Amino acid sequence: MSIETSKKKKGIQMPHTYIILFLIVLVVCLLTYVIPAGQFERQEDASGRMLIVPGTYTQVESSPVSPLEIPMAFVRTLGSSSVNEIIFFIFIIGGAFELIMQTGMITAFCAKLGKMFAGKEKLLIPIFITVFAVGGFTMGMSVEVLVFVPIGIAVAKAVGYDTITGTAMIAMGSIVGFTAGIYNPFNVGVAQSIAGVTPMFSGAWYRWIILVAFIVVTSLYIIHYAEKVKKNPSKNLMGNEDSNLEDVDVSAIEVTGRHKLILLAVVIALAVLIYGVAYLGWFITEMATLFLVLGVVCGILAGFSGNKICDLYVQGMANITFGALIVGVAGTINTVMVDGMIIDTIINALANAIVALPSSVKIIGMFLVQTIINLPINSGTGQAAATMPIMAPVGDLVGLTRQSTVLAFQLGDGLTNAIFPTSSTMLGFLAASKIPYSVWLKYVIKLVILLSLVSMAFLALAVVIGY
Q: Which N-terminal residues, if any, form the signal peptide (predicted)?
C-alpha cells in the first residue's frame, strides 16, 4: 500500500510540506510590513563565526518584502553556496543509500538475526533496534525503513510476537538513531553547519550516551508490550486485524559472500568517516566524496553493471529530492527575514522572553519550540534551515553554547516523527504494516513521552556541564 493510498482511505488530505512552507514564507513577507526592522552589531570570534554583540540591538528603517519577491528569494536561496553545498551532499547520500539497499545486504542480515535468535526472542528486540539506530545516526535512515518492516514483522511473529512489535523494533530503532544523530548528516550535520559549529559532528561523545539511553528505554518499553501479548494474545492492540498481513518467508533469505563484503565496505567507510571528521577536519566535500565512492564500491561488490549502478544512483537521488530541495524552500524563510531586516528583531524578542529563566529551563524551552515546529516542518533538514538561523543567535544571547542549541534542535525534531500525522516516516511504515494510525498512537504515545523526558534531562545536564 502506498503512502498516497493510505492518505486517501483516511479521507484526510494533508497540505504538501512545500505548500506549508510557502504559506510560512508568505506570512513572513507580510510580517516585514508589521514587525519593526532592526539589527545587532556582529563581530567575528576566534573560529571565524560572526556572533551577535549583546546589547547592541537598534531599530532601523523599515524594509518590507513584497510577496511578489518570493520566487526570486527562493531562487537566490537555492543559488547560495552554503545551501547548494548541503543540497548536493544530500543527493550524494541518497544515491549511495539506494545502492546499499538494492544490494539486499540489510535485508539478508536482518533475516539472519531472526534465525540466530530463535528461542531468545527478548534479545531480538534490542538487537534490531540497535541495527536500525545505526542506520538512523549514520545515513539518516527514516522513511526507508518501510522496506524492512515486513521482515521485522515476520521475525516477530515467528517468535510469538505481533505486528506492532515487529514494526516498532524496526521503526523506533531508526527514529531514536536519527534523533540521537551522532553522525547524521540530515539533522546534526546541517544544523551544525548553519550554526557554525566546527568540526562537523563534534560533541559526538554526548550524543553516544543519549543514544544508549534511548535504546535502553525503547527496548524495555517494546519488550514489556511484546511479552504481554505473547502471554495473552487478547492484549494485541490490533485484535483480529493482525491477521491481514501477508507472511514473509524469512527462512528463504540467505546471507551471501557478496553481502558480507558489502557490510565490510560499509563498516570501513563509517570508520574512515569518523576518523576523518574527528582528526582530519573533514567537512561536507570530503564526506560527500566518501559516500560517493562507497555507493559505487557496494554496487561493484554486488555484481551490478556500470549502467545499473548509475541508474540506482540517479534513482536514489530522485527519491531524496523532496528532502534535498526542502533545504532551499525552508531557507527562503530566513532569506525573507534578512531582506526585511526583521530577523534580529525576532531574535531580540525571543532572547528577552527567556533570558531571565534558569539556563536549564531556557534550553528546554528551545526543545519544546522545536518539537512544535516539527508538526508543520517535519523534515530535519528543512527545520534546521528554517530555525537554526534564529535559534543559534538566541542561544548566544541567553548564554547557551551553539552545541547545546543544536542538541535542543535535533531532539525536538526527531522523536515526534513517531506520532505527528505530517511525518512521512510514520505514514510510510504504517502503510507497510497496515497498522491503523489510532492504534499506533495509542501504543507509542507513552514511549514518546518517556523519551522526551529523557531528552529534557540530558539537555539540562548539557547546560550544567557546559556542553
A: none
